[in-house]
Amino acid sequence: METLEWMKARLPEFLKDLEAFVRRESPSGDKEGLEAAAAFLEEAFGPLRGRLSRKDTPLGPVLLLKRDGRGEPVLVLCHYDTVHPKGSFPEAFRLARDRAVGPGVYDMKGGIVALLYALRHAEATGRELPALEVLFTPDEEVGSKESRPLIEAAARKARAALVLEPPTPEGDLKVARKGVGLYRLKAQGKAAHQGVEPERGVNAVLELAHQILRVGALEDREKGTTLGPNVLRGGTASNVVAEEAWVEIDLRAWTREEVGRVEEALRALKPVLPGARLEVSGGLNRPTMEPTPESLALFEKARAIGEALGLSLRPGRVGGGSDGNFTAALGVPTLDGLGLYGGDAHQRSEYVVVSEIPRRAALLAELLHAL
Ligand SMILES: [Zn+2]
């Protein structure tokens, strides 16, 4: 395929851009690093067709590239923050055998550079693309607090959303992601002297111990619903009947229905000890991304293009959330995993497979063209 040949011919140049971008290490929350990475994006995408604008947020700049084209806009989601504190890798960028290794090279700076080449390809060949809105965000790895409203506002006008997170470890695209919730269950008891008059107290730690087993029992492994009561605190001193105790619970589920079932059950928990009270707070921070006929049709388009490129892509499902969860929850057909092929996400050995770069970049270029 012609596009594939074009990408292959530009692989050395692609690697230079990828290296320059990855070397500007940009862990979430690192103002200076994020600023430097945003400057790379401005230099790279600024000269392309369209208008690049910038909005500063407390978590770093959000960049928006708007490009005119056919029909309602297609939203492209990219985050340029990474999970790695600066200097985590022995070298910020390294080519070894068929791998490029570096912080964020796979999640997801590689996907962003693939988009750069997909757009350069469209300009070089004069190909028509749909209208595009590309968001480059600085806070995905810490929950997208600042970016979420901007993503949702752009999604409301979009006919589709493409997410440039990496594919699954098997190389598949992502059509489903679990919803992610964080809840706090607090037991309120009553303090008393443990030696003098313990009978006047209500032990919150004991109360919570009863409840934690009930929380665990809400899990449904068959349906993929998991509950992790992973952080636990309570009491003040060993000679004081514990007045307060709480547990933080991580919930993951594939469907809204399951989230609803668990939330309802958490709120219905009844205290076991006389005089104890329970409080549940928190909620979903990423809604479920469930496949729809429209998102599967989008996947099917990508699958057919992949086939022509020699890729056999399947509709993947993953437990972790992304910004695609927000767009899918608004009913926008969402396809995720369109970044580069590689592995070891969030590890200090994170890499992309160099020889697979042209095919993934061509897949993105062709998919944009086909929409
Ligand atoms: Zn990511």
UniProtKB/TrEMBL annotation:
SUPFAM superfamilies: Bacterial exopeptidase dimerisation domain (SSF55031), Zn-dependent exopeptidases (SSF53187). Coiled coil: none annotated. GO terms for molecular function: hydrolase activity; metal ion binding. The active site is at 81, 140 (proton acceptor). Gene3D superfamilies: 3.30.70.360, Zn peptidases. Pfam families: M20_dimer, Peptidase_M20. The keyword Iron does not apply. The keyword Metal-binding applies. Keywords: Hydrolase, Metal-binding. Residues 175-268 form the Peptidase M20 dimerisation domain. PANTHER family: ACETYLORNITHINE DEACETYLASE (PTHR43808), BLL0789 PROTEIN (PTHR43808:SF9). This is M20 family peptidase.
